[in-house]
Amino acid sequence: MFADDVRDGLTKPGQKTLPCEYFYDAVGSALFEAITVLPEYGLTRADARLIRRLAPELEREFRSSVSVVELGSGSGTKTRWILESLRGRDPVQYYPIDVSASALAHCAQELSALAQVFPVEGSYLSGLHRIACQRPSGKPLLVLFLGSTIGNFDRAAAGSFLCDVRQMLRPGDALLVGADLVKAVPDMLLAYDDPAGVTAAFNLNLLARINRELEADFKLRNFVHEARYDDRERRIEMHLRSKVDQRICVRGAGFACEFERDETIWTESCHKFHAEEICEMGSDAGFTCAAQWIDEQWPFAESLLIA
Ligand code: AVI
């Protein structure tokens, strides 16, 4: 729960943290949409270019006999291209999974002309479990995990997530996973610290959300957005740095916490991968990497893992 997670993250000893899943309230989701069109954030455009390129190949691999599951509710062009390619004569059954009912409703509205949409509200794994238990026999599942969301897991968690997904699939099912690749450090830093300050606003909105929903008294001007690259872990880390010594009261969660000047809240990790690493992670989880597509303008890989 939000209040518990905020209390745990801000009162534990050592590095303060907040879970990145809480970025996406209405304001945060709108700011994320803005991030995806920033010139410095090449990730979403690379993902889209690749999906457009590979969608016809998916059609050849599966013909029209596949049900599509998406981890996250895709409403945009990427999912559209895949559904258009796969639909053949019969409409595809499409199961978007998301914790947000409003995102699912939007997705159903956008894509129902192309597919039979069965929105599933819940976490990725619980949703996939429900779909796997009631799947129509005979049809393989194609699970989409696009946009490098896998990079927001710790590496170990990403590996065990793939294992969990694999356990719910049958041989012949597939997972299409998008992952941002390691590139020049200045390019990665700019993607997460754009000069227009959109990513800073996205990060700071987490404190604004705590103010709105948990009656906290964060003064946003007393914090500054920071993006760092950890070379060893191959990840961007997003932080909010306190500019002053301060005490914050979070009335709705029943606690207060102190910040020293320059102390940070670690809000997100965005892991970057080597292309072969995705296939290795897939094979460790019980998949075979059947194909991989890499964008030429912005190093990003789409990997088709077969169970
Ligand atoms: C959603 N996720 C893949 C984004 C990323 O790049 O890790 C979230 C994001 N955070 C800051 N900018 C974008």
Based on CA atoms alone, the radius of gyration comes out at 20 Å
Task: Provide the structure class.
Answer: alpha/beta
For the sheet with most strands, the description reads:
8 strands, mixed
Terminus-to-terminus distance: 33 Å
What integer is the average pLDDT? Answer: 95
Number of helices: 10
Number of strands: 14
* Helix-strand topology string: HEHHEHEHEEHEHEHHEEEEEHEE
Low-confidence stretches: none
**Shape descriptor:** globular
Question: Roughly what percent helix?
Answer: 25-40%
Distinct small molecules bound, one entry per kind:
N,N-dimethyl-L-histidine
- Strand percentage lies at 25-35%
Textual characterization of the structure:
The protein has 307 residues and is α/β, with parallel strands linked by helices. Helices cover 39% and strands 26% of the residues. The protein has ten helices and 14 strands. It has helices at 2-11, 26-36, 43-62, 77-86, 101-111, 124-133, 155-168, 185-191, 198-214, 275-284, and strands at residues 16-17, 67-71, 92-98, 115-117, 120-121, 141-145, 174-180, 223-230, 235-242, 246-250, 255-259, 264-271, 288-294, 300-306. The strands form three sheets. Strands 2, 3, 4, 5, 6, 7, 13 and 14 form an eight-stranded mixed sheet that branches. A four-stranded mixed sheet has the order 1-12-9-8. The longest helix is centred in the N-terminal third of the chain and has 20 residues, at 43-62. The radius of gyration is 20 Å and the shape is globular. N,N-dimethyl-L-histidine binds at residues 35, 43, 147-149, 151-152, 192, 199, 268, 270.
